[in-house]
Amino acid sequence: MITTTGLTKVYPSRGREVTALDGVDLHVREGEVYGVIGQSGAGKSSLIRCVNLLERPTAGTVTVDGQDLTALAGRGRRAGKELRQARSRIGMVFQHFNLLSSRTVQDNVELPLEILGVSGQERSRKALELLDLVGLADKARAYPAQLSGGQKQRVGIARALAGDPKVLLSDEATSALDPETTRSILQLLRDLNRQLGLTVLLITHEMDVVKTICDSAALMKKGRIVESGTVSELLATPGSELAQELFPVGGQASGPGRTVIDVTFHGEAATQPVISQLSRTYNIDISILGAAMDTVAGKQIGRMRIELPGRYEENVVPVGFLREQGLQVEVVDGPANVPAQTAAALVKEGAK
Ligand SMILES: Nc1ncnc2c1ncn2[C@@H]1O[C@H](COP(=O)(O)OP(=O)(O)OP(=O)(O)O)[C@@H](O)[C@H]1O
Ligand SMILES: [Mg+2]
């Protein structure tokens, strides 16, 4: 639904250049909620502003719903009109709502429809329908100053939906809101995503937002996407920074010469007594250092950090057993990234 290839943005800045985006390849599938997370200055806002061409990319392409927007940008009047039309099908929600204080709630929602040349009666009908959809039917005649932050953001969302967009872009839509209001706005975005089949690309610096509503996520650093995938793919990727932050488990080894591993349980595996089977099969004592169950992307997932006696090389077989049970196993201490073959070779060496 949204694809960028080699997206690059360089800002001129007091004689030198700032590379805000450095070759970003992003792929957001139709109907998903996709979160981009990263620290301040990572390039998140630049990315979202380039996706709807509010900002002209320095290089690379942006395709939304099959249309190459970069090809339309700055190519004569006809292409300009097509670009405006394409952009009207991309809704945008902002951190600070960007409502006009002199206009009523309803008139704020009607604004994009006025720009599209929709007639007065139709505008009014559509605005009231959208306000109803976001739960603000009774506030149509109020002014923004009379609303709470959460209500203002609901107006912002209703306005973003005025052009019947297929895609909604959100730049830190909940960053100015308290935790409870944040939850209700995220729930609204999730509902809209489901009810309208709306594809949502959201930018955030809060991992909780990703955890609550995202199907997929990407981690941005210094203008690049360093990790991306569906949330379950990420959780299944050894060493994934996003996975570790989405689902942290703590706990330190109780002493030297022990193997600490993180075991992730998805779905069915969560109900199998694998840890006691492991203990019985290999006659080893297992200590649980940390554990958590949580719902990520609507699925129940468990994570456990356990400790086995002996170094990693002595535990290759039990670790293999856990993997055979369909569990995702990551070695925390020691050679976390030693490929299975090398580990097997190490064991053979030890046996000689
Ligand atoms: N208009 C601009 N002119 C010059 N430099 C800019 C401009 N906009 C952004 N930058 C720079 O580009 C880099 C990325 O900025 P961007 O706003 O995309 O980051 P961000 O990830 O959204 O950060 P935040 O979480 O603080 O909103 C930063 O170094 C920033 O200073
Ligand atoms: Mg930003």
Walkthrough of the structure:
The radius of gyration is 25 Å and the shape is elongated. The longest helix has 18 residues, at 179-196. It has helices spanning 44-51, 69-72, 76-88, 105-115, 120-133, 149-160, 179-196, 207-213, 231-235, 241-246, 274-282, 316-324, 340-351; strands at residues 2-13, 16-28, 33-38, 59-64, 67-68, 90-93, 167-171, 199-204, 216-221, 224-230, 258-266, 287-296, 299-309, 328-331. A hairpin with a 2-residue loop joins strand 12 (287-296) and strand 13 (299-309). It has 13 helices and 14 strands. It folds into two domains: 2-235, Rossmann fold; 247-351, Alpha-Beta Plaits (2-Layer Sandwich). With 352 residues, the protein is an alpha/beta fold. The strands form three sheets. Strands 6-7-8-3-9-10 form a six-stranded mixed beta sheet, with helices on both faces. Helix 4 (105-115) packs across helix 5, helix 4 packs parallel to helix 6 and helix 5 crosses helix 6. Magnesium ion binds at residues 44-45. Adenosine-5'-triphosphate is lined by residues 11, 13, 18, 20, 38, 40-46, 205.
Characteristics:
352 residues, alpha/beta, Rossmann fold, Alpha-Beta Plaits, 2 domains, six-stranded mixed β-sheet, 36% helix, disordered C terminus, binds adenosine-5'-triphosphate, binds magnesium ion, P-loop_NTPase, membrane, Methionine import ATP-binding protein MetN
